[in-house]
Amino acid sequence: MEPVQEPSYESQAGGAVSREETATVYPPKFQKLEAPANVWVKSIGSLALYLILGYYIFHSFTMLLIITSIVVIHELGHFFAMKLFRYKDLGIFFIPLLGAYVSGSKREVSQRESAIILLAGPLPGIVLGIIFYLLWQKDDSLALAGISYYQVSMLFILLNLINLLPIYPLDGGQLLNRVFLDEESWVSKIFVVLSAGLMIWVAWSLYQSSGQPFYFILFLFPLMILTRLQTDKKFTAIEKKIEEAGINADVSYEDLKDEDYWKIRNILIEGHSAFKDIPPAPPYEYSSKEEKVMTTVQSLLHRHLIQDVSLVGKLFILLICLTAFASPWLLKMDMSFFNRFGL
Any idea what the Cα angle at residue 288 is, between residues 285 and 292, rounded to 5°? Predict the structure, then answer.
């Protein structure tokens, strides 16, 4: 697509130029063509792959379904909380052998909303685990597909308590980073690096104690974290160039001018290795990677984090987390079940 040149203007007497404008009309910025239904097709596809590879680990379809149900309930908590706060492009995606996550986008994000969204995953699971445990106490013969309510309750509690640990990118780590630390500060970056280091140590320890090569997949988490830190460093340099070019990045993608989209796109092509093979504009033509370009441009637009959690609010959140961790002891549960997991 080539930009359209507006005609110049001449006076009727003698052809002298009385007004001359040569304004470029830029093609529209790229819009995602994928239908919302396709997001759910991808979600179902990732779930199918998750189940297939999960069966390789558990060798019990019943146990696999129970664990998958726990994961789904956890992610649905995040999903409905994000829907409540009007996040866009929502979808649930499963990572084989690792878990799942909910994706969504929103320009203005508050600490209060973030805390509710992050806690909406593990807390319902812990509550359900407690309910299964109390039912088992009344009748220890109760079972779900041959698995006792006691085991089901402990799985609910264990998996969700792990997610509440203050380790990035678990829910507890994101909560600590978003509400209690400044995400842009060096303290936050040190916390993220320490989280990656701890996860490497845990993965290596589990492998050494069990000898199972399966645990090598846990190294993917710290690898993704460190890769993201490197990407953030590149983005900081790109954001600086965008600012130097006088482009207003303090807008939503919907409000971003077409001209600014193509200018940011050129800066991306110059500064990001993933887009080196895309020719800069002009000519103003979409690339086969245009959706990825669009997603990257969206991530470069400034997101507003509203600091709306007071000291009392932070103490309340901390109390909720501590109560969740203390719940097995408060209910005098038999903690020998956790020993199977080295806890």
Answer: 100
What is the per-residue pLDDT for 121? 95
- 26, 287 contact by CB (below 8 A): no
Strand segments (E) across 37-161: 88-95, 99-105, 108-110, 143-144, 147-148
Please list, in sequence order, all residues whose beta carbon lies within 8 angstroms of the beta carbon of residue 322, skipping any fewer than 6 positions away: none
Q: Position of tokens 């901390």?
A: 318
What's the confidence (pLDDT) of residue 11?
34
| Residue with token string 């179902």 | 44
Of 194, 202, 176, 45, nearest to 115 (Cα)? 176
Give CA–CA dist 1/28, Å, rounded. 10
* Residue 322 neighbours by CB distance under 10 Å: 11
Nearest-5° Cα angle at 161, 157 to 166: 175
State how far the Cα of 40 lies from the Cα of 46, in Å rounded to an integer: 10
CA distance to 206, 274, 298, per residue, from 107 (Å): 39, 25, 10
58 close to 97: Cβ distance less than 8 angstroms? no
Long-range contacts (CB closer than 8 Å, 24 or more residues apart) made by 291-296: 291/30, 291/32, 291/33, 291/34, 293/30, 293/265, 293/268, 294/29, 294/30, 294/31, 294/32, 294/253, 296/268, 296/272
Supply the pTM of this predicted model. 0.79
First-to-last C-alpha distance (Å) of the chain = 60
What is the identity of the amino acid at 180?
F
pLDDT score, position 40? 73
Q: What angle do CA 87, 241, 22 make, to 5 degrees?
A: 95
With a cut of 70, list the residues of the chain below it in pLDDT: 1-24, 33-38, 58, 97, 335-343
| Residue 314 burial by Cβ neighbours in a 10 Å radius (0-12, 13-18, 19+) | middle
Q: Where are the beta strands (DSSP E) in the chain?
A: 4-5, 24-25, 88-95, 99-105, 108-110, 143-144, 147-148, 304-306
